[in-house]
């Protein structure tokens, strides 16, 4: 009986291997920091349905940032009021230096459903 069990497990393992080779393995996560210029920092903003991943984002005044926006669920955009910054799936990256310290409101710039009006966050330039 153990011989049949071992044969079945080997057959299943082979089938899974063929499936993975046929569909492709998932890509390795890439280090986004390696794409940055010297002295540049990364600000990642992720949106899901009716929320940003952080309630507050903190950046340093005078520092150059690469801002990356992504949707993990739904169709969203982000606008940072007072700084003229708007990102979406069509334009997800921007290089910017935040010069003026202060607190800026961020909100979703694409009508995304009933929770759209509550989809807000803050960018704090220190």
Set down the secondary structure blueprint.
Elements: H1 2-23, E1 41-48, E2 51-52, E3 56-59, E4 64-71, E5 78-80, E6 85-87, E7 93-97, E8 102-107, E9 120-125
Parallel strand pairs: 1-4, 3-9
Antiparallel strand pairs: 1-2, 4-7, 5-6, 5-8, 8-9
Overall description:
This protein has 126 residues and is an alpha+beta fold. The chain has one helix and nine strands. The chain has one helix at residues 2-23, and strands at 41-48, 51-52, 56-59, 64-71, 78-80, 85-87, 93-97, 102-107, 120-125. The chain is elongated, with a radius of gyration of 22 Å. It starts with a helix and ends with a strand.
Tell me the series of helices and strands, N- to C-terminal.
Answer: HEEEEEEEEE
Can you give the mean pLDDT? 87
**DSSP summary: helix tally:** 1
**Could you list the spans in which at least 5 consecutive residues all have pLDDT below 50?**
none
Alpha-beta classification: alpha+beta
Briefly, what is this?
This protein is of the alpha+beta class and 126 residues long. Helix content is 17%, strand content 36%.
Main features:
126 residues; alpha+beta
């Amino acid at each position: 009986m153990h011989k049949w069990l071992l044969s079945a497990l080997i057959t299943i393992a082979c089938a899974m291997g063929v499936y993975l080779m046929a569909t492709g393995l998932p890509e390795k996560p890439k280090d986004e920091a390696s794409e940055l210029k010297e002295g540049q920092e990364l600000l990642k903003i992720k949106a899901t349905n009716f929320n940003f991943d952080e309630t507050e984002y903190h950046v340093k005044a005078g520092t150059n940032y690469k801002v990356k926006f992504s949707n993990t669920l739904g169709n969203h955009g982000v606008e940072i009021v007072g700084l003229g910054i708007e990102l979406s799936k069509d334009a997800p990256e921007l290089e910017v230096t935040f010069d003026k310290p202060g607190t800026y409101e961020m909100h979703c710039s694409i009508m995304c459903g009933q929770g759209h009006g509550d989809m807000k966050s803050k960018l704090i330039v220190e």
